[in-house]
Amino acid sequence: MRIFYFFIWLLIVFLSILPAQAELQLGGYWESDLVGMLKKDQSKLLAEVNRLRLKLDANWQEVMTLHLEPRYYSLIKSEDLSLAGVTNPNQLIWDRVYLKGRFPQFSLTLGKQRIAWGVGYVWNPTDVFNPYFLSFAAREEETANVEAVRLEIPLGELSNIDGYVLTNQPWADTTKGVRIKGHKEKFDFSLSYVSQNEGESQVGLDFVGEVFGMGVRGEAAFKKAALVGDYQQLVVGWDYTLENGWGLIMEYFHNGYGFADKNNYDWANNRLGRDYLFLSASKLIDEITSAKGSIIFNLNDASFLLYPQFSRNIKQNLDLNLEAMILGGQVGSEFNPPSFYDPLAMGGSKSILVRLVLSF
Fold it and tell me: Does residue 69 lie in a domain region?
């Protein structure tokens, strides 16, 4: 209850400091997840996760925007272990806080923000902040944010220069990136460069477009790493909607940082598989009901992550989701790790999730 009063206090303070001519937008969501898990050692885990997120925007004449995005998680569980996607439980976190100015020749964003490059659905090797994200199972808001100065310069229709510098480290050590994006007929394409600390850097390429009614995309990153040497990561994929309404997605990921043999996996540094395949099929059953099934295969060790979903809008702004996650494969594979790396027996588990989401 105290956190509810804090959000009310925060809103009052936010309103009191706004100029009279500012336009205020308030949004967000409350989410409650009930999770049941059967682990590979046959023990059971029960948990309840609650998420509250506010999105406050103050706009001044479409020139300046102040964005505040606090969030609060609470976690109740039957066993003392962490759950994926639940960081800093029972704490108020300022997830995104930034000021954005829009000017005739450029826009400038200062503060804690999301910077997302790349075109992949699951894998984004050109995105150094969120290179891997289960977009079919989690909200965009759960991606990592960074404190940065970001400059965007438009070059024409669907073309721009995008650059950023992280602000929490000395200049020589901080992460800096620039991307040039262009457009030609049915294709968008870009070239990027990122410099990181300890002499690490990468050059990235990506494209997205349409061929014969099918969406196609690709992404490649050529990485220079001080400790492991140079390597490449590549993503190619397509999406297509059939006449019967089924939507299909395929994505292949080649990870030059990984290994083809699971016996060579470097668990401590997360150097696992080399080749992956993502498949997804979704169907809008009616105006308020949808179903989706997604699977990620590690093609080298034959392990997998299966994620079926059912969603229904039960009231205005209130959605009910039924979801499951099944991890499978031989012991020692990516989704069924060896016991020394998985002492809590989370790999090879089966989970069921009931999720309520109230948007406002």
Answer: no
